[in-house]
């Protein structure tokens, strides 16, 4: 994706500053309506969700005590995976956004919640709520775009190391909770500086994160398996916990990729964001920088309603159970102002996001210009680019772009 | 998930128990064991104090007695004391204090009697919408408005409106004993009208049985009580120890009256809501109590976020997105009023009514709407 300002057709060129402020006012009105009607029904929803999740987790862990029997292992592992997903997505993520702070219940509050994840609530609230939600999809500012380790935009110069990016992305997906913890700490940046230069904040946060990881690992891989020792189910329980964490990681990674990464979601240049971005301008950036997953109620629940990513990014502090309710009105607003409401079923969005990961792991234009017929030449070209020096790469890149341009002209002429 | 740790008492049983607890805690982290146990038994010993509504008994059209089964942690009370109650109204937890209207009961239940006041969010909810089975949050009983032991020979009790609630607790307790007390009690019970008088029948029955002398005064038939008439209503006034509870006007007049006659008086005042939010953009004085703020006071206007105002005053404040999204700047407001700069919504904190930790506010989008005290 090229940042919006460098595209030949800017999708918001038709909006006047007045239009943008009008969008802001209309979205504020939707938000206010939800705030005004927020009450008992919503409180009952989140309390029920918390109770269901806790019962499910306990029941699954109890079942795993007998996990020497394969059916018990399967049931316990499925239950634990679902419980962990609910805890992280519909409960933890949303509680930490302050979606339920209005209830004034100290047990369900953004300042006291700690989640079943390697990253600490404090670290997550900083990197996710503050950085990602404020600077959504601004290349170089929003680390959610590739978590600082991936090429997420054509404008980022290609380097051979990016060829490995589909593999890294997959490994990151499997161990996503640790990836998040590392990125909350800005681990890469901090590790690359001399020890004595690292900030006190980093040292404190790193210590807290390590303690959290130790507690999490002790629970899943020592204490709960040990409780199953009397039935001889130590190893099956350990495997079940590992599997549940893996499932949760893969699932949450997929959902999060779908939120901002599918083809067609806009990214922004740091310098294109005005110094004093108005609320309307901020809203529009959120509208263009997010993508929804369409699907059933169960799908919305299991994604923590991040399937309503657009609505979530517009109103991060509204209770998650209300996103589905406001979605049709938000969609109508997109249509009214001629904006693209990016929405597709999960498999399609996941495929699209992965397509982008693969496409950008390769030099600009390479995937586009490769056909079965010219594959050998193209592979040879890629080999040259991967092994050659910077000058060779630049020359090859120019050739690729020329090829791509020619192809586009031919297609246009044929049509 | 914050829960006060149980006090650690050395000893073998304790050590084994705390070791087991540690294992259980490590099996459920990041939850605490109490969070898990709460799912099954919210009223167990060691849980945060709560109570389940057992019965809601209408007293008058606008008042009701709520009978509660308190959690095992309930430490008991003396009649005349009050309890802080956290009620979820429209999903929002609001705290109020109510007098306990029974002595210790054989069934272990406690009761409060609530009069719905106009626009009273919590009182109307409790009187009209509370149902058996619902849970309320509780704090331990508090208050000094209790009879001395032994109970003096002659008492005068003066109550106005719902001021009867701590007094009925005392009376029920005295008269539930197998042996009737010898105390000679006069109760002057003042109400706006006969139909608004709570516990009317019960008090009249006590009067008929000769256990108390009841003097009823209704504003609509007798006119508002002039305390100068008290000596007429209670001729042996000077021999009696007086306990009074009711509206501020009545208590103020009574204090003056008793001081003039050189008589002792014990009163209980129901805290009035003191916060008067400023209009529009008036702002107010923000006091930062706590280790970081160190008592700093800031004159903040009604359009500047408290975060900005405090930072301009040189206080190191937690902050994040500065646009109301990230919750990185949330601090507890102990008392006062702030306005949400995005939609003008008012948030008010009244000590004793809005939870022991105060009301958490986002300082980046909240401006002072009157004097407020923030813990930081």
TrEMBL record, chain A:
One of its GO terms (molecular function) is oxidoreductase activity. It comes from the Bacteria. It is an enzyme of class 1 (oxidoreductase). InterPro entries: FA_desaturase_dom, Fatty_acid_desaturase. Keywords: Oxidoreductase. Its EC number is 1.14.19.-. Residues 72-343 form the Fatty acid desaturase domain. This is Acyl-CoA desaturase. The lineage of its organism: Bacteria, Bacillati, Actinomycetota, Actinomycetes, Propionibacteriales.
Automatic annotation (TrEMBL), chain B:
Keywords: 2Fe-2S, FAD, Flavoprotein, Iron, Iron-sulfur, Metal-binding, Oxidoreductase. The keyword Acyltransferase does not apply. Residues 284-376 form the 2Fe-2S ferredoxin-type domain. InterPro entries: 2Fe-2S_ferredoxin-like_sf, 2Fe-2S_ferredoxin-type, Beta-grasp_dom_sf, Cbr1-like_FAD-bd_dom, FAD-bd_FR_type, FNR_nucleotide-bd, MRET, OxRdtase_FAD/NAD-bd. Coiled coil: none annotated. Pfam families: FAD_binding_6, Fer2, NAD_binding_1. Gene3D superfamilies: 3.10.20.30, Nucleotide-binding domain of ferredoxin-NADP reductase (FNR) module, Translation factors. This is Ferredoxin reductase. It comes from Nocardioides abyssi.
